[in-house]
């Protein structure tokens, strides 16, 4: 069992429809495929997409009499951050990673766990509607005018964490903005988004990665709880699905998540091999 607190990965975006839950599930399962012990908490008790995905996965295991890498999972339905912290401590006991999926709206618990993240992942679509979550741009020049309240919150948190790192040996926060569904974006708009993200990333210190494209298969996999990683259980995959798996490989690798030392062996299982 792990003797230290699990590494916290928080998927957060106060706007819905960004592929946040889909990305969170696939990253959690990818870590489990590598042999890591993973716990997962869904902070959206109304939609509970993240939680339902893992429930569907368990049901598929029972129905097909198979074993799939997964996560210990729960949904938080409480009303204060102390209870949430207690749940996180309990479910994360003995785990290497603790993954949070948060609602696509302004939510006190989402903001609370965001400030505790070791890696904060903010998926977004390539549009200035989504960009507005982290910064506002000039209507004529598309230059960044100011940070959003959310970006200010994370910026202040990262500064405090950086100071605490030296004092308490606490991990610094890695903030990663993941650009999903870029294949459906008009070229000129994509360039403007890239420029705005590049400008803002220098000011607040996040990294930008390419994420998952819009694909029907993600919606088709939800009822079974299967992921693109579950080779041998998906049937024949077309070329586009193989490309999607490669996108996921690239994203998992680029997140640079620290694997436990016990898994740092030549024979360790590949997350997306």
From TrEMBL:
Gene3D superfamilies given in the database record: P-loop containing nucleotide triphosphate hydrolases
Signal peptide start-end: none
InterPro entries: DNA_Partitioning_ATPase, MipZ, P-loop_NTPase
One Pfam family, short name: MipZ
Coiled-coil intervals, chain numbering: none
Superkingdom of source: Bacteria
Record-linked SUPFAM superfamilies: P-loop containing nucleoside triphosphate hydrolases
PANTHER family: COBQ_COBB_MIND_PARA NUCLEOTIDE BINDING DOMAIN-CONTAINING PROTEIN, P-LOOP CONTAINING NUCLEOSIDE TRIPHOSPHATE HYDROLASE
Name of this chain's protein: ParA-like protein
